Amino acid sequence: MKTSRDIQRLQKTEYTGYLVDNSVEHEGKQEVHRVSPAVSEGETSAQEYGTLERILSRENMQRAYKRVVANKGSHGVDGMTTDELRNFLIQEWPEIKLAILQGEYKPQPVRRVEIPKPNGGIRLLGIPTVLDRLIQQAIAQELTLIFDKGFSNNSYGFRPNRSAKDAVKKANEYINEGYRWVVDLDLEKFFDKVNHDILMSRVARKVKDKRVLKLIRAYLTSGVMLNGIKVKNEEGTPQGGPLSPLLANIILDDLDKELERRGHKFCRYADDCNIFVKSERAAKRVKENITEYIEKVLKLKVNRNKSAVDRPWKRKFLGFSFYLTRGKSQIRIAEESIKKFKNKIREITSRRNPLSTEERINKLNPIIIGWVNYFSLAKAKKHMEELDQWIRRRLRMCEWKLWKKVRTRIRNLIKLGMRPYFAKIYANTRKGYWHIANSHILSTTLTNEYFNQLGYKSLISQYSKMHGN
């Protein structure tokens, strides 16, 4: 049965039970990030958690719709965008829902996207169609209600009311308790190597509706579209869909339980796991034993080149690292994270990028705000000040390049308050763009206040707001 937007026959009947409201709710009441039961607690006895009816219930599907639309995201193989989803569902949802209930629905293959990694290599993402993202989100919301309460307190990735910063804070606590050796485990291509049979056996422990299990397996085996050809996938759960993070937590919950059974202190965020111990000898033993468990029991592969036993302050964890001051561990930004941030800034502030200063600032601000928001946990005031100075220097360099001609430079320098005599001298300088950007010429004309008036959101101002100073 066709389910993409090439369906020719439109529904002529009244759309009873379709998931999109006719009236638009107020934005403040959408609650797109909240996960709640598809039906009230009183109805649970008549309708068990994890059934296909609960997944496809009106309330659960509406919440999934709001979440998918809020997250936006790229299109899948059918080209449909989130903006087109509403009208498509109004026309086609009754037929699609019936196909799912009858076990006839076939997910479309995912669109392969390659994302370069900062340290080389690529990360493979699989982008499902918007419709499949909607259905996956609905499944994930229901399965979260079933599985999340049983997950380990040491698991922080893709869970309600938990974040990467919580994991980093907990890791810092372990270090201050004396666990100053870390086993940094890296699972090799985890999302591409998950064994489907093992994963489905874990899901089936709590999900009893065989129609739901069949639908989840259909998503696991939906395949990848490469150069117009569908390629089957016998293992893995492609990164990019709403269901993948939850499935990752389900299969790695066995690892969490094994670490807890052995009494280890650890923090896990998706496939990024750090185990904290008190001695190098113990750390090496733990690394060997846990690697054997992961590979023999979970049938996953540990990347021995990237996994290591070391001091926590010599390793990176979720973009952060640590340092010791007066015997106490503090959180800092990892050097690799700063390099990655600077590379993003360089792309926007490249002289070859023909943008106005206002356009550059508009592109910079969301990156700056998001980066500071994430790394506000770290002791980083000095870093923020230094990065601000560096960014403003790059903006001055771009502005000087935009002025190009000598007469344009003279006119703009005078406009910014420089005396005509000095403006003529400075405008004829032969020094390079980067050198001029750090000179008295521009630091007294293209001032910090100048960029603030253009809307520049400095790192230090954002950081200070979050720290209340």
Provide the succession of SSEs.
HHHEEHHEHHHEEHEEHEEEHHHHHHHHH
The main sheet comes to:
4 strands, mixed
Helix proportion: 40-55%
- Protein structure class: alpha+beta
Q: What would you report as the Rg, rounded to the nearest angstrom?
A: 27 Å
The shape, in one word, is: globular
End-to-end separation: 60 Å
Mean of residue pLDDT values: 86
- Side by side, the strands of the main sheet go 2-1-4-5
Quaternary state, please? Answer: single chain
The percentage of residues in β strands lies in 5-15%
- Which blocks of ≥5 consecutive residues have pLDDT under 50? 1-18, 20-46
Alpha plus pi helix count: 19
3D structure, described in words:
The protein has 469 residues and is α+β, with helices and mostly antiparallel strands. The protein has 19 helices and ten strands. It has a four-stranded mixed sheet with strand order 2-1-4-5, with no helix packed on it. The protein has a four-stranded antiparallel sheet with strand order 6-7-3-8, with helices on both faces. The chain has a two-stranded antiparallel sheet with strand order 9-10. It is globular and about 85 Å long.
